[in-house]
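Memo to structure team: turn this sequence into structure tokens by end of day. - J.P.
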Amino acid sequence: MSTPDTNALVAATLRDLAAVQRGKQSAWGYKRAAAAVLELEQPIERYIESDGSLRKIAHVGPKSEQVVLDVLRTGKSATVERAIVESGKTDEIAVRRTLREHFLSRAKVRDALDHAAPGTPALSDYRGDLQMHSVWSDGGQTFADIARGGLERGYEYSAVTDHSYGLRIAGGVPMADIPEQHAEIDAVNAEYAGRFRIFKGIEANIRADGSVDLQPDELAQFELVVAAPHAVLRSPADQTPRMLRAVSTRGVHILGHPRGRIWGSRPGVTADWDVVFAAAAALNVAIEIDGDPSRQDIDFTLARRAVAAGCFFALDSDAHAVDQLRYAETAIAHARLAGVPVERVVNCWPMAQLIDWMDSRR
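Reply from structure team:
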């Protein structure tokens, strides 16, 4: 990145402080302050008044404000560092810090969207979101909500990818219910014909052995399949064979949030990603950049390696509600920072080209 992501650094420092609090209330307060800083649309430096104080930011109280000012002045907070040492959690915090690498704050997302090398995907190139969840699994949006929300953002299409039946914890949809779900999608598509289309998708779970939790005849019932890992996400063991088996599965279109990492708490899958990307490129399986702020998976550094391998990309929101559709902007920002060519982004393809590609993998 051309400039440091100060908002991300400040938020991470506040989360460090939250992690060493003895009281739940104070820990919650610092977490809330960190979240507020991550969501700022502008760099936090712009919130500094002429007298050196911090302009009021919702949920950032006096103690958090002092941490912000410390970081802006010195790049760290002596108060936080002292609290970490006194807590005896130095090693734990060191690990947490490694799990926050290459995540973008909202301000940095906005900066990447406004400034990038020519030939990378812009918001104006983006035609539709290919991973999201509805009330049929663990989402809060109906198909009509998705159609209206997509149209408001200028989309031509979206894919609903509710969780498959193997992931019960996320309300996976039983195959017996799929005909009813598809009939509901058909009704919404008929209502919005010529303006917007919802593709019938599924987010299949990648098991520990690399198989997906749908049989070949079940995969064939969907227009688009995102395969993603949801378990064995903290093990340091190499899982390259697992990922290779998943991308090699006929009917899989997108390798979704490939690592399964979570900001500050989970490293995700360890694999030889260059080998995985090479296999995906050979099979025309797209690599997803998941824009959920807590995921941002894959990030721009790893995406550069997927570019070098010749991969296609899917830039998705992983939205569970209409107000989360903007998470696609985080995915686009990572793609721009990685130098992903716009012609390799499936979300930027005309609908006919997208359908041809989907059909070729079924």
